[in-house]
Amino acid sequence: MTADTPTIDYPPTERTRIKRQHERALYDRKTVHEILDAGLLCHVGYVIDGQPYVTPTCYWRQGERVYWHGSSASRMLRRQAQGGVPVCFTVSLLDGLVFARSGYASSINYRTVMAFGEAEQVTDEAEILATLEFFQERLTPGRWAELRPVTDQELKATTVMSLELKEVAAKVRPGPHDDAEDDYGLPVWAGVVPIRYEIGAPEDDPRLAPGIAQPDYLGDVSVG
C-alpha cells in the first residue's frame, strides 16, 4: 500500500459501494468518525408495513456505534425496538455553494456518511444513563453533574437505539468546480461561498430563578 492508496476500514458492500462519482467515496474510519463527530442531526430510514419513512433526530457516536433516542411512544422507536429492523442511517453536512460558469456545472460542497444495519435497543438502565450522559457531555462538558437526576418515569419514557458501524461509506466533495475548458474565459463569476455553522450567544430562560449566572461551560458548547 502506497501513501496515496486510500485506507479501507469498512469494505464496500453492494449497498455502500459508491458508483456515481466514486472518486469522492471514502471508506476509512478516520473520515467516517470525523464527519459523524462534526454533526448532530441524522436521518434514519426504515419501513413500516411496506411504507418507507425517514425520521430526523439527534445522534451521537461512541466508538464503533451511533446512538439516537426519543420517546418510548415514538412509532419509529417502537418499530425499531422490535429487533431485526433494517435501517439506513445518514448524516449530511453542507459546507458550501459552488458556483460554476454554467448552471449545469454548479454544485455544493458536502460531507456525508451512510450506514446500513439493524438497529438495536439499549435495554440496560445503567448503559442508557451512561450513554445519555455521554451525549450531554459531548454538547456541554460539565453540565450532567448539575442536572436533576433522571427519574424512573423518565427512564421508562425514553428509548435509546444504537447501530454498529459495519456497513458504512462516506462521500466528500471539497473545493471549486472543474468547468468545461471552453467556459473558463466567460465573463461570469465562479467560486465557492462557504457555509459554516455558528453557535450564538446563550439566551436565558424567561423563568430562570433569580441569581443564576450563565455557567462557564456554555463557552464550550460544541456540536463537533
Topology:
Layout: E1 25-26, H1 29-38, E2 41-48, E3 51-62, E4 65-71, H2 75-81, E5 86-99, E6 107-118, E7 120-122, H3 125-139, H4 152-156, E8 158-164, E9 167-173, E10 191-194
Antiparallel strand pairs: 1-9, 2-3, 2-5, 3-4, 4-8, 5-6, 5-10, 6-9, 7-8
Walk me through what this model shows.
Strands 1, 2, 3, 4, 5, 6, 7, 8, 9 and 10 form a 10-stranded antiparallel β-sheet that branches. The chain has helices at 29-38, 75-81, 125-139, 152-156, and strands at residues 25-26, 41-48, 51-62, 65-71, 86-99, 107-118, 120-122, 158-164, 167-173, 191-194. The chain contains 4 helices and 10 strands; from the N terminus they run βαβββαβββααβββ. The radius of gyration is 21 Å and the shape is globular. It is an alpha+beta fold and 224 residues long. It has one domain (22-197, 211-219): Roll (Pnp Oxidase, Chain A). A hairpin with a 2-residue loop joins strand 3 and strand 4 (65-71). The chain starts with 24 loop residues before the first strand and ends in a 30-residue tail after the last strand.
